[in-house]
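Q: My hope is that you can spare some time for a protein that puzzles me. Underneath my words sits a plain record pairing an amino acid chain with its backbone structure tokens. Those tokens are not coordinates but codes from a learned vocabulary of shapes. Thank you; the sequence and its tokens follow:
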Amino acid sequence: MGTCSWCGTPFPKTRKTRKYCTNRCKTNACLEKKPRLRAADVEALHEVLHSEFASVDAMRERLREIVAPELPAIPLVDGRIAIPRLD
């Protein structure tokens, strides 16, 4: 017996079903790993690719706004990306 990695249901393991109890659970797990972009986001990415930017940082910030709007802005120190120290 195995436990489904997506829903947690116990199921008999076979060669076909090693991690997921059904094909639907396998599909759901795959879709969660790879989030889809909306059509408006794809169009915005095309606009970014065809436009001119004053700096790479401006383009990077615009890409971040499109792809991951929930994340905070990229911090800059002296015009360079600030990478926090872990110590």
Summary: Residues 2-33 form one domain. The two ends are 44 Å apart (CA to CA). Strands lie at 2-3, 10-11, 76-77, 80-81. The first helix runs from residue 23 to 33.
